[in-house]
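Just scan my protein:

. . .
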Amino acid sequence: MNQTLKRVLAILVIVITFFAWYVSVFGIGSIDSAKDALKYGLDIDGGVYVVMEADTDLKGEELKKLMDQTRAVLDNRVNQMGVAESSVTIEGDNRLRVEIPGAENAEEAIKAVGKTAQLQFVLADGSVVLDGSNVKDAQIATDGSKYKILLDFDSEGAAKFESGTKTALSGTVTPNIPSVKKNQIAIILDNEIIAHPNVNSVISSGSCEMTGGYSREEASTIAALIRGGALPVDLVEVQSSVQSASIGADALDKSIVAGAIGILLVFLLMIIFYGMLGILADIALSLYVAMFIWAMAAFDVVLTLPGIAALILSIGMAVDANVIIFARIKEEICAGKSIRVAVSAGFKNALTTVLDAQITTLIAAVVLYEVGTTSVKGFAFTLIIGIVISIFTAVVVTQLFISLLAESKKFAKNKFFGVKEDGTPKQFLNKTFNFIKHRKVFYIISIAVIVIGMGFAFIGGMNYGIDFTGGTMIQVEMGKEVPISDVENSIKEFDIDPSIIYSGEGNTQVVIKTTNALNNEERAKVIDALGESFGITEKDVLASEQFGPSVGDELKANAVKAVLIASIGMLIYIILRFKSWKYGLSAVVGVVHDVLMVISFYAIFGFTVNNPFIAAILTLVGYSINDTIVIFDRIRENKALYKKDNSEINIDRSINSTLNRTIMTSLTTLVVMVPLCIMVSSSIREFIIPLMVGVIVGCYSSIFVCSPIYYELCKGNEESKYTKQISGKTKKKKK
């Protein structure tokens, strides 16, 4: 590519970057700003989700068919509620997840979704006239100032309904259903009467009108429930969550501010440590963030608070790709090559490392997407988008700018590429260390931490959240600070053994947690009791969650399965790329070490183990491998260059040559997380804390565990070769 074309492309990239950011912040014409263009999850926009489990023994294809039918019925029911962006999805084999964003009355929304028994038309004596499978349609129409409901039946239903209306009008029916008269037909759903209109005449046409002075809302609700029809299986609520939009909106605003601060700190660090190269990297990173945001909008990805954490983490990984490239260019310059040749060689040598590191992380993200729940899938997909875009911006955009810099007479100088005039690199750590020599010290440190952590876990147990143990959480705005004892007294009749803590500014909110999995009706009774004591209403309920005990068991099983699948996938990839099982085994040992270290950290300090913790653990697996691959790539390269040196010398040389990059990448990733951890809500903090611990542990294991383990595996072969050489020399002397 000639110089003129490169300049045109570089100017175009800068213009596009500024334009993308302008549109992202302010919008333009019919294009909304990024904040308005993105779709947000229930934890930001507020709303209700409920996960229900099918009560059936079916398996395989029969179960799949049943769940597809049930999903279709529920989807129709939810859509008829008139809530935009509602969704019904199948989770696992026998569960359905229903999301209703922006639902104003959470209790009523869950009730409407949870109507699981067959819809029946019943006479006053309890005899069934027909069921929901005979109903073709139910619509509403105006009836003067009120509304009526129009029903249509299939041919079988028409005949049954004609017979039922005749019986209702005959006067022979003996009522035994409360509130239903002998000349009425009750419409019953989930053992509750949703309507019981009078029968005024025999109806043989297959259609009828239900009048009763309904309001539009009443008529719409009844019609929607009738249209929902009969579910082919009973469903049991195993998990639900209600989120107030006010909490999510506040968290989103704080996340944007915290994210902006974190990104600016990263930009500043890049300029401080890399000068002109840092400025070019910042341009590429700016484009990266803009592309990331608009890719989310283009793919209709639902942005959740954990997704924001994934965005922040992927920024750190995008920085890593740039740092790897810069480090290789500096090495080529220090080796005596001209700036132009060094840039070309540096990119060529760095490309393999960048791709290997990102692809192994991508494997972990894909596994997380495949086995995770809906919220975790969003987190994983966000991470996948970030990885793909980071490769593009680092390999294409950064290369474009640096190649222009290398061909410039004014800037093609050592000082602009992080190299001193004497040909030595500028770096914040110049000392070399003997890592392999002291490896046993680090083995002891790791083993000690893991043993202590496992001791805490077995003796005191892990601090499992209700999504693992099963239970209920209700967060309520009380309007003022209320004594915890008063709250306990107001709900003591329910015998739920609650844990109650303060939350929010001024301790005006209380969070009630119990290991009892309260269903929707039971939660409503608790909230009513609080209302009687403190005057709160449904609007004061900021959030509530319910998890059945089976959900936690599945989370644990999926987490173990995900780690195993990800480890096997990465092991295979590493063996194929490095053509040696020793690299793969060493890397997997590091993964196991990192997982155990983070679990130990949680056990020792009592942090809550929950769904975000699982997602963070699986992300840590990919991030830790990223670090390890960079060092292993250098070990492989040095073994080919310095064939006469033994493994200890080559491994130490490789770790030391990548040490500045390892520290810089970990530092920038941590820096971008810190504002989020400090400024934003506990829901993001639950993701950020294990990620921060994971970054530190991953950095540690790559240097002090994986590389020494690889040395142990290689040492045996070298000792065998040495023994053979000595034995051969001895035999020659004897001759």
About this structure: The first strand starts at residue 39 and ends at 40. The mean pLDDT is 82. The radius of gyration is 32 Å. The first helix runs from residue 3 to 26.
